[in-house]
């Protein structure tokens, strides 16, 4: 039974939701993150707004008390060390309570002060907020003096009820507005997330329709250069590559099957013929010779198929070392000399006379040259010539195998490095070719960071040129 912690899905409204993700789609998760961030921002902004409003109102009230205190102090007169009280009706009309106190903190008698402030205070210069059951009050105390002599104290008190009501109204508005804003934003966020991710749904739906046998389907995408457009384009490029690889694999399998079918059929026919009745020793030898030839052909084909399969899967690794290409060319010419002589073909080498070294896999480079020389000898008639040359060209080392053979028609030259491709299938079968040698040569050249190309003219010969990164001695 599968572990519910890892994989567990169910269908909801025709959609699949993953339990591990809490049944949340990407659109919903994006919306929730958006709402969460918006909530934090709005709550933080609202808190800052309320705090700033409260501070601003308190500063305004404090400034008003200071202005009123300055006005009253300017009107205070002293007579024999006693305070002559000014008229304060204008001050009290604004909602500010005022009282004068002597130096000991006792309220100075006056008819207009009878119901205002406490009779006794502890004088403290400055403003502070005093909390009472009736609400918050802003209290300001100033010194009354004449010259250096302190005559008493002036205390102004103003209720902050108006400011508090304003602040409470703002809080009420925010408590209503913020949730409504978040609710509206969540709907808009979900709509935007759905709109933004709709191309992803289109890509998903298209991907579901693509099967192993139908890789020609394409996403298409929005056709823009944004992230989703690039995603769709990349997905289509991947499908193009998969389709090419799949078709090549199909062709490769079909060609391999066809190539193996012929020698197997010949071996089977020879064996059945030999077993059907008694034959002479010579006839048995002939049959075994044919079987041996076909078995060798199959063995060579299987080796090449395995090589290409390993190279496709990345298992064919180069064993690199410093290689003297001039010496390598001489070795290949010596090994292939007998084959060329048996066909009446002259095999020569052209070297620059100085060491040419590169960092590569010696056995693979030998295999590359042997394949090229083998092809050149096979398709060069008696009396012809095959030349192997090596030279330094700018920052590359150039290897060439040139023959005076039958040549390759122009329309076939771009395909000769494809697997199992043959210009003349009947002629290739006669020479024992498999159609894989040049494909292997291309892989070896590209694995060394180089390239290979062909230049040919029918009836005048062919030149294969390999460019490899050069390492100077």
Map the helices and strands.
Blueprint: E1 9-12, E2 15-18, H1 26-75, E3 77-79, E4 82-84, H2 89-92, E5 96-101, E6 126-132, E7 135-146, E8 149-159, H3 161-209, H4 227-276, H5 281-313, E9 321-324, H6 325-343, E10 346-351, E11 357-360, H7 362-378, E12 385-393, E13 396-403, H8 410-413, H9 425-431, H10 437-447, E14 451-457, E15 461-469
Parallel strand pairs: 10-12
Antiparallel strand pairs: 1-2, 3-4, 5-8, 6-7, 7-8, 9-11, 12-13, 13-15, 14-15
Count, helices: 10
Oligomer: single chain
Distance between the termini: 65 Å
Looking at CATH, the homologous superfamily of the domain at 317-469 is Histidine kinase-like ATPase, C-terminal domain
Keywords:
473 residues; Beta-Lactamase; Helix Hairpins; Heat Shock Protein 90; 4-stranded antiparallel beta sheet; 10 helices; rod-shaped; disordered N terminus
């Amino acid at each position: 039974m599968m572990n519910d912690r890892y994989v567990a899905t169910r269908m909801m409204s025709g959609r699949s939701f993953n339990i591990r993700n809490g049944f949340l789609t990407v659109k919903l998760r994006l919306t929730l993150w958006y709402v969460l961030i918006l909530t934090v921002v709005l709550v933080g902004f609202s808190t800052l707004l309320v705090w700033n409003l409260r501070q601003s109102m308190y500063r305004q009230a404090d400034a008003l008390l200071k202005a009123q205190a300055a006005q009253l102090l300017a009107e205070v007169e002293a007579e024999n060390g006693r305070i002559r009280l000014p008229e304060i009706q204008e001050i009290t009309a604004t909602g500010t309570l005022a009282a004068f106190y002597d130096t000991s903190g006792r309220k100075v008698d006056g008819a207009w002060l009878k119901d205002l402030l406490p009779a006794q205070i502890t004088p403290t210069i400055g403003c502070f907020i005093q909390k009472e059951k009736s609400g918050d009050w802003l209290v300001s105390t100033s010194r009354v003096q004449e010259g250096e002599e302190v005559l008493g104290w002036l205390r102004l008190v103003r209720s902050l009820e108006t400011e508090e009501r304003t602040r409470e109204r703002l809080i009420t508005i925010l408590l209503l507005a913020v949730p409504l804003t978040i609710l509206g934003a969540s709907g808009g966020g979900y709509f935007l997330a759905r709109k933004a991710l709709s191309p992803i749904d289109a890509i998903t739906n298209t991907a579901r329709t693509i099967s192993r046998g139908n890789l020609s389907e394409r996403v298409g995408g929005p056709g823009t250069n944004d992230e989703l457009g690039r995603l769709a384009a990349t997905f289509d490029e991947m499908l193009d590559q998969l389709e090419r690889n799949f078709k090549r694999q199909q062709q490769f399998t079909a060609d391999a099957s066809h190539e193996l079918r012929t020698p197997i059929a010949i071996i089977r026919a020879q064996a059945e013929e030999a077993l059907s009745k008694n034959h002479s020793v010579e006839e048995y030898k002939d049959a075994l010779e044919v079987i041996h030839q076909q078995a060798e052909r199959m063995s060579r084909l299987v080796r090449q198929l395995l090589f290409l399969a390993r190279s496709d899967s990345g298992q064919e690794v180069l064993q690199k070392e410093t290689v003297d290409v001039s010496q390598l060319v001489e070795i290949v010419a010596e090994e292939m000399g007998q084959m060329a002589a048996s066909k009446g073909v002259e095999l020569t080498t052209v070297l620059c006379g100085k060491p040419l070294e590169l960092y590569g896999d010696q056995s693979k480079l030998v295999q590359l040259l042997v394949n090229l020389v083998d092809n050149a000898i096979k398709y060069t008639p008696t009396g012809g010539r095959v030349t192997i040359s090596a030279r330094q060209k700018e920052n590359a080392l150039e290897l060439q195998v040139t023959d005076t053979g039958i040549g390759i028609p122009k329309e076939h030259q771009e395909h000769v490095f494809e697997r199992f491709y043959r210009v003349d299938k009947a002629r290739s079968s006669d020479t024992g070719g498999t159609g894989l040698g040049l494909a292997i040569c291309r892989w070896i050249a590209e694995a060394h960071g180089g390239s290979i190309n062909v230049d040919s003219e029918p009836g005048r010969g062919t030149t294969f040129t390999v460019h490899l990164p050069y390492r100077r001695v």
